[in-house]
Write a structure and sequence with these properties.
alpha+beta; six-stranded antiparallel barrel; six-stranded antiparallel β-barrel; about 15% helix; elongated
Length: about 375
């Protein structure tokens, strides 16, 4: 084996333990701590930092206690770093409370079909995608599946109107005059599927009604907005079934607020065509091929005689095109929220033709504010309306 010769002093020299052998690493400069025998079968190790267990002083870290067990040191003051986990736990607890409250709100909505709340609260439903908000096409695509066509049959004949789906199991709001006196009600969804519906409750004073589909589930529902936030000039979209044309979309603006509109309460109104219709619904079998919506506004009567039994409500005025069959349909803001239930429109009679038929919308339509509907929902569900 070849050894490499190195100059003397290249490696450090260590002291020996006394037997001639060099110590590595060097021995400590003090006697290592040894256990103390306290009695038969009992051995105690001195507390850290003590030197010779029998040393009289506290040299080299000793404390003069002769190696006896020392009391536990007093805890030091908490550092700022220790508080961070506590702050984090507090933040998590607060977040959990917030989430818990939100969950409770959702559960509450589910237990009452998601359609209870104050008049000013928004009741959630189908929404418009963020990229489509503010566009007529976006609102129409999102809300059209929540608007239905209603066909009502009564002793006066048949009438057609519209309705808005508010629960997934088939609760639909519409105008009272669409279903007043009906012996049977048929509802057609935007998909073409047809259901039989029962009239749950009506409120002739507010011209509102609630019907319920038989055996429906999983339906898309509309978001009921807050009509107190509506301003003159706001853009709006109307969806309904004018002349039986399901899912017709028109648009316009809010022309005025709080208009006093008077409509017939019962099935006793007579349109300008001379034919009796079921309230203001579009009579499919009426004289002249199409009946109009009698109402009073500004002291004048439009579209015929409203009859002896009438009711007056505050309405949203719009220039969005409304035609017979739009009754009970939705007036929608550009966020896709229902702000009104379409209820009346002025349709000037054409000068041509002996039947005095409707000339269509002239940009004067009215809708019942959605806050009126929300405040009346419990009454309608209970069937306690006027």
């Amino acid at each position: 084996m070849t050894e490499t010769q190195r100059p003397s002093g290249e490696y450090p020299m260590y002291p020996s333990y006394g037997n001639g052998d060099a110590a590595y690493p060097p021995p400590p400069s003090y006697q290592p701590v040894q256990p103390v025998a306290m009695g038969p079968g009992t051995t105690v190790w001195p507390a850290p930092g003590t030197a010779d267990p029998y040393a009289g002083g506290a040299g080299h870290g000793g404390d003069g206690s002769h190696g006896l067990p020392q009391p536990a040191p007093e805890p030091s003051a908490p550092r700022h770093g220790v508080r961070r986990p506590v702050a984090l736990l507090a933040a998590v607890a607060i977040a959990a409370a917030i989430v818990g409250g939100g969950t409770a709100t959702v559960i509450g909505q589910l237990t009452d079909n998601g359609t209870s709340g104050t008049a000013g609260s928004v009741i959630p439903g189908t929404t418009v995608s963020q990229s489509s908000k503010g566009t007529v096409s976006g609102v129409a695509a999102a809300l059209a599946p929540t608007i239905v066509e209603i066909g009502a049959t009564s002793t006066s004949g048949e009438s057609t109107g519209s309705g808005v789906v508010i629960t997934s199991d088939g609760e639909i709001v519409t105008n009272n005059h669409v279903v007043a006196g009906a012996s049977s009600v048929k509802v057609t969804l935007s998909t073409g599927k047809t259901y039989t519906a029962d009239i749950v409750g009506t409120d002739a004073d507010k011209d509102l009604a609630l019907i319920k589909l038989q055996g429906a589930s999983g339906l898309k529902t509309a978001t009921l907005g807050d009509s107190s936030r509506v301003a003159v000039g706001d853009q709006v979209v109307a969806i309904g079934s004018p002349e039986g044309l399901t899912g017709t979309v028109t648009s316009g603006i809010v022309s005025a607020l709080d208009r006093d509109v008077t409509v017939a309460k019962n099935d006793d109104s007579t349109g300008s065509t001379g034919g009796s219709d079921s309230g203001q619904g579009q009579g499919q079998g009426g004289q002249g091929g199409g009946q109009q919506w009698p109402f009073e506004f500004g002291g004048q009567q439009f579209n015929g005689d409203t009859g002896d039994s009438t009711t007056t409500y505050k309405a949203i005025q719009t220039d969005a095109s409304l035609n017979p069959g739009n009754s009970g349909g939705a007036l929608i803001n550009m966020n896709g929220e229902i702000i009104g239930i379409n209820s009346a429109m002025y349709s000037a009679s054409s000068s041509s033709g002996s039947g005095g038929s409707s000339a269509g919308s002239v940009g004067l339509g009215f809708a019942i504010p959605v806050n009126t509907l929300k405040a009346d929902l419990d009454t309608l569900r209970a069937g306690d309306g006027s």
